[in-house]
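Q: My collaborator sent me two sequences in one message, no labels, and asked for predicted structures for both. Can we handle them in order? The first one she listed is below.
A: Yes, handling them in the order given. First sequence, followed by its structure tokens:
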Amino acid sequence: MQLQFVPIEAFYFALTLDTRVLREWSGSSLVDEARIKLRARYGEPSTVAAARQNTFNYVFQVENSVSTGSVIEIFDWADQLRLSSNLGLERTASGKVNRLESFNERPRFAAELSAHFSELLGMTLVD
């Protein structure tokens, strides 16, 4: 058996430094509702931070025309529900995050994702 060790930095950067918030909604009741519905649909979260302000994080790989290969997260942070993505962002070998041409697609992508999760979870996620 061969195992390839993945250092925490690679995992951590991919989920926190490479992604930026697209949308966020306030309200502990909304966060609780999202937590329940996400768990019912997907099971355990992808990651859980050891902090009171972050209790779930569901991570998805996107596979469609504009955003193929993009990562999105839907997670809670201090009584906010947040939607983040790395669409239009690229981390260099030195660790800096650069904007790509597709960065301009983020507002449209955010609207599509919000509508998708609204329908999928049966929740109202409006600005």
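Q: And the one she listed second?
A: Here it is, processed independently of the first:
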Amino acid sequence: MNLLRLIIILYGFLVGACSLTPKYEMPNTEQYLGEEYVQTKSEIPAEELNAISWWNQFNDPIINTLVENALTNNLNLRVAAANVLESEALVRAATGSRWPQVRGNVSGERSFTGSSTGSSFSTGTDRLYTTTYQVGASISWQADLFGKLRSAEKASIADWQASQTDREALIHTVIANVIRQRVELAIAIQRLYVAQQILESRKQTLKIVNRRYSRGVTNSSAVDVRLARENVYSAEAGIATLEQNVSLAQHALDILLGKKPGTFFISQIDLTELPELDDAIAGVPARLLDRRPDLRSSEFRVIARNERIGVALADLYPDLTITTSSGWRDAEFSDLFSSQSLFGSLLGELTQTLFSGGRLRAEVDAAKARLQAQANTYANEVLQAIREVEDALVQNHKLNERLAKVIQQVNEARLAEELSRDRYARGVENLLTVLETERRRQDAEDSLLQVERDYWN
């Protein structure tokens, strides 16, 4: 039997070798979904899974510009991309371990032995020198008898897929954070504009109070003047805080865009207006959960844990390594590549751990426990995803109701403020009523902006 035939037989034995990895079964989460989810669960086309341009539905050029910058420059996304490259390289390394390992060597050796004359003292002339030159190559191949290498490769592939979906999930997170920060910045600017309008309104009230006091109108006193001034200073202090909030929101957006804080490139005027939002969908099928990359990433990690059970089980059984080497060895370099200098060998080595103090069995148990933990983690993430969807639907419904009421509140507060100031100017109303209506109008305006921000989020 020649060497080639032996290798072919061994390779066929390798291909047909058994695998000890348990059959993978997707963790059962339908018990958490409820009937309305299970009935609508279906497969999703790959192109729909990979689509990440959902921000276009807002029809906002500013959002499109910000997202484009973030996807290009965000540093966290660059870290995630590097993690994907690392996982891909580990897959190639795991695949390479299943192939024969070929090594070449070139060596030269100069050695000597003492003379055989029996003299108790030897000089250089009493020594026998030899020189050996060698050029050779060896092929070492571990036969994957029990699927250890295949399981390790599949686990690496699952880890690589998990890193890809982790990156996709991070892309969604960064985009969502960019949109949230764009909304936060727009609301901060609108709050600043409203505060500036309220400041002007309070200054107008102060003029009325000063005019009444200087004319000696009944029920007008220095206390009214002080209160009106305090109202103006309070509004000015609030503006300083709101200006700070605008700057901090710009800095946060700069970081998301991978830019130096303080280099924001869109004017406040362009940022002020937010597009109208469509109503949320009425029902949510289970396929919406299937589109979440964080859930798919978690399932890939379950697959990886399952494959590593096979790796741990295979360690309980023998490893077979086939090594063949060949080359030329001669004392004269000129005769190195002659047929008389040729040598070769073939070695088959079967190794089995006879005693490890229970370590190998413990590693199998640990691998099984890690699989169970990851499966439960996946199930918990499904539950959390359902909660997030259900919470969002409830919040959307209640925010719609609240928004309608707050709009009415703002309208009434504006009318009350205008009426009270007019009545005060005519001496029908006292100043405290005017100040109270101004405060209530500011609170109502602020509540409206906060509800709009919550609705976007």
